[in-house]
Specification:
The chain is built from 9 helices and 12 strands. The chain has 2 domains: 166 residues, Rossmann fold (3-Layer(aba) Sandwich), CATH 3.40.50.300; 121 residues, Heat Shock Protein 90 (2-Layer Sandwich). By secondary structure, it is of the alpha/beta class. Helix 7 packs antiparallel against helix 8.
């Protein structure tokens, strides 16, 4: 189905946009390799002229195109995003590390990050990719040292998909200029898609203080029945212990565990009465001297996907996804 790129005013950027300090997060809708190169190379050359470093994290085929045009440009660093794993919840910390490695002190940095939307494994994964894009604005809101361009291949996506991605970016780039994005969601709370109901048949287990061994045993059996390899089962055991412990300590002293298999994924869902106010919880690396607050971080590092929904009225739901061998 054909799509149209969101329209933006022609001419130079509005002065109010150009003068704004802080993190600059731009969506660049393009069609085809030619437009991809035009927009990204223009962004890179702007950076080089301003003596800024550039971090490029795009799919391998796009990286090859850019390398062919740039040659051995030392100020441009290419990143293999597969090292971060499939979970979008790891990407804020990954970008933080990549930028620190490239900034060389106070040197400004530009990033180009093309999210592999077409490789989304499920509707849940796609939703978390969008949430990551929105959270970038919060994660780097106080950073004046860098800006980020997000190329988006609009050739084969429908208009609703492009609009959903657009809502995560304050700025739109077109014809080498950027301007305010009227569709950007600058609300303090991201409008999560509701979690789908558990797939029948599912198992349910209520737990409270003293039941952590039983929780681990329950999940271990489910993992074995589903065919999770030993390494994956060991990682999952640590993650479920952390999340169940959070329920007991911060979620009212108890919770409900549900497990089921759906589309080659083992899901472990934890529900409790607690409330997680910080949408960045679990997405930034804990400090070495930090006491507590590591449970969600560990879950993101150990699981293939983590979904978190939390409101004061309904409490907190955390879903841990473990991919099964296909």
């Amino acid at each position: 189905m054909s799509t149209t790129v969101p329209s933006t005013p022609s001419g130079p950027p509005q002065p109010s946009v150009q003068a704004e300090a802080g993190f600059r997060h731009e969506l660049y809708p393009y069609r085809g390799q030619g437009q991809f190169l035009t927009g990204t190379l223009g962004f890179i050359h702007e950076a080089l002229e301003a003596d800024e470093a550039v971090v490029v994290a795009v799919p391998a085929d796009k990286a090859s195109l850019l390398r062919g045009e740039l040659g051995d440009e030392g100020a441009v660093t290419f990143i293999d995003t597969t090292t971060a794993g499939p979970n979008p919840g790891r990407l804020v910390a990954a970008w933080t590390a990549w930028l620190q490695e490239s900034s060389q002190g106070d040197r400004p940095v530009r990033g180009i990050g093309e999210t592999p939307w077409s490789q989304a494994r499920s509707a849940a994964h796609l939703s978390e990719l969008r949430h990551h894009e929105w959270l970038l604005n919060r994660a780097f809101a106080r950073s004046s040292a860098w800006s980020m361009l997000c190329p988006y291949d609009a050739a084969d996506e429908d208009q609703s998909a492009l609009r959903s991605v657009s809502r995560c970016h304050p700025l739109i780039r077109e014809d080498g200029q950027y301007t305010r994005n009227k569709d950007y969601l600058d609300d303090s709370a991201y409008p999560f898609e509701a979690l789908a109901a558990p797939c029948d048949p599912y198992q349910e287990f209520s737990y409270t203080d003293g039941d952590l061994v039983a929780v681990r045993s329950k999940v271990a059996q489910c993992a074995a029945d589903a065919g999770v390899p030993e390494e994956g089962a060991s990682k999952l055991a640590v993650a479920v212990t952390e999340i169940a412990t959070n329920s007991i300590r911060h979620g009212g002293g108890s919770g409900v565990l549900r497990t089921w298999v759906q589309d080659s994924v083992l899901l472990c869902e934890f529900r409790d009465a607690g409330y997680i106010a910080d949408p960045m919880a679990g997405r930034t690396r804990p400090l070495a001297e930090q006491l507590g607050g590591r449970g969600l971080w560990l879950a993101h590092q150990l699981c293939d996907l983590v979904e978190i929904r939390s409101t004061r009225e309904q409490g907190t739901t955390v879903r841990l996804h473990t991919d099964l061998p296909r």
